[in-house]
Amino acid sequence: MQIWFYPPPLKRRVPAGANLDAVPVIRENYRKVVWRRAYWYQRLGLWLALPTWPVWSALEALRFSLQLGARVRAETGKSRTQQFSEQVALAWRHLIPPSAYYMFELYLDAHRRRADEYLLRAETKGGAFFLLRPHDFDPKRRRPFRDKATFAAECVAAGLRAAPVLARFAKGKVKARMTEALPPIDLFVKLTEGKGGRGAECWRYEDRHWRHGRFSLDEAGLMAHLADHSRVGGLVLQPRLINHPDLADINLGALSTLRMVTALDEQEKPELIGAVLRMPSRADSAVDNFHAGGIAAPVDAATGRLGAASDMGLKPSTRWHDVHPVTGGRIQGRALPYWAEARTLITEAHARLGDRVVIGWDVAVLADGPAIVEANGLPDQDILQRIHKAPLGEARLGQLLAHHLTHGTRWRKP
Fold first, then answer.
1. Most CB atoms within 10 A, among 113, 201, 355, 384?
2. Cα first-last separation, the chain
3. What is the pTM of this model?
4. CATH, domain 245-407, list 3.30.460.80, 3.30.930.10, 3.30.470.20, 3.40.50.2000
5. How far apart are CA 47 and CA 52, in angstroms?
6. pLDDT one-digit tens code per residue, 392-402
7. Which ranges carry the Alpha-L-glutamate ligase-related protein ATP-grasp domain (predicted)?
């Protein structure tokens, strides 16, 4: 599948005059891990598919130029033809897919000059992050990050504040209850191993019943309904978390969360790499997920202040917003409450729970402080690079990935 959505795993040349140290290390390890993990028939398939990359990338460039070309022309004055030719040049000479041209705004000349510094999703999630696991990593356990109920329990055991779990459901049964009776509050349901906000539901409490859509259920009815619903996938039931009042004018009644990425430094101590605040952009959204149409704003690591927000950059309506597009609440320049406490929380969490070099933390800022919602051992870096308008390949993240790939002794090798 990689050949259809990402560049082929071939050796990439370093452009003349480019001052790249970390990126070649990351990409060479990605190339090795893809080819060495592949069975003979997978290698054969890759070789047979390699000639399709120029054709596929040209077709994708044409599609994106037709869909998004008018917006970029209004912004930069570049015609669709010029945008198409720049996408093809990046794809054929530098193995950069056409989607990255719009996501990372490579149609801006200053950004395009640094195009080779952007880390592609396959190079990190399929390469560096896969390799940078301990030698004794247990693939069956997958750390607590994938299973949300297990993760919440490990946070409690480690003395870390995290979103509590009230009950867990699987295969048509109530697998665990943490309280004898459900509290009379709004509740939140999500898949035990879901991604991207898929399957999330908010159940509102009113008059001894919980309501969602056409359902109005008492406690026994709700527990039975969720147990039955878990036949197609495990569920966790949690209290509905509510943001700090200072964020009420930009979260549309949903929970806005920080995506904070930490990495182990050269002494294997966690440090914050980057952060964004995610917000829903539709009034009917139950989650703030960036890949589900939400928007995100960059967070200044030193001050906790926000910059302008945007989406993935792949829609004709894409804009950068100083104020929320629905509520009009100020985004640009807003100072986040409890920012210092959030930084401390996730660096301590990485030190106590992390067996990965890089971890992405989802953190909610509540009225009385920050709480960890989830963690991701394979965090997507598109959101940081897109929203901060800067590549990570030669920044601190790229430097640390290259360091651990080259000098780390605890980690696997390709």
1. 384
2. 20
3. 0.91
4. 3.30.470.20
5. 10
6. 999 999 999 99
7. 145-385
